[in-house]
Amino acid sequence: MGAKLSVEEVMANLERRAAFHREQEALHAQQVVFHAQQGEHHREQQAVHAAELQKVLQSLETFRTAAGTAVDLAQTLPPAAQPAAVADEARLPPRNRKMVGRLIKLAAESPGLAEPFGPTDVAAEANRRFAGRLPERIGPRTASDVLRRMLAEGEIKLVREGRPFQEALYARRTRQGG
């Protein structure tokens, strides 16, 4: 299904279809009475709309029960706890002019960041994790500067050199002496 519809929209749509097929079934039943010579066509149309009405009503009833259960389940979901954020809170740098670089460094060292990663990935991770501490969003250029500094210090390794229109990719060094 290409369009994203809410539960209310789906139910309203199914109810409109049921009403339409009820009206059409009744109309063709009246037409059978009034037009005896065309009765066969109207009987066929009445049967088609009666069958469609049954399908729509069955789908509507099934959807109502499933939607009620799904809404109940969705409302009882507790918020997910983030233990990693609490552990990193102790490592967060104090607020000063060098804070952004340290936050980018923490994001690059994060095990949640898939390898290989580029400046865009690191900037997105830092913006996601530290949104409350940042004065403004971190851009990929700033993240690229910090990653190049980390590469020069030997904290990360270069996987693919950057080219015009293709950012450099990095990976974390292994802790056992890599």
> At the fourth CATH level, what is the homologous superfamily of the largest domain?
Winged helix-like DNA-binding domain superfamily/Winged helix DNA-binding domain
**Beta-strand residue percentage:** 5-15%
* Helix and strand element order: HHHHHHEE
List low-confidence stretches.
none
Using DSSP, what is the number of strands?
2
Count of folded domains:
2
Number of helices: 6
> If classified by CATH, what would the architecture of the largest domain be?
Orthogonal Bundle
Radius of gyration from CA coordinates: 31 Å
Helicity range: 55-70%
Biggest sheet statistics: 2 strands, antiparallel
Quickly give the structural class.
mainly alpha
Name of the CATH first level of the largest domain: Mainly Alpha
Characterize this entry briefly:
By secondary structure, this protein is mostly helical.
Protein described:
The chain is mainly alpha-helical. The chain folds into two domains: 7-75; 83-172, Arc Repressor Mutant, subunit A. It contains six helices and two strands. It has helices spanning 7-34, 39-75, 83-89, 99-109, 119-129, 140-152; strands spanning 156-160, 169-172. The radius of gyration is 31 Å and the shape is rod-shaped.
Q: What is the fold's blueprint, element by element?
A:
Elements: H1 7-34, H2 39-75, H3 83-89, H4 99-109, H5 119-129, H6 140-152, E1 156-160, E2 169-172
Helix pairs in contact: 1-2, 4-5, 4-6, 5-6
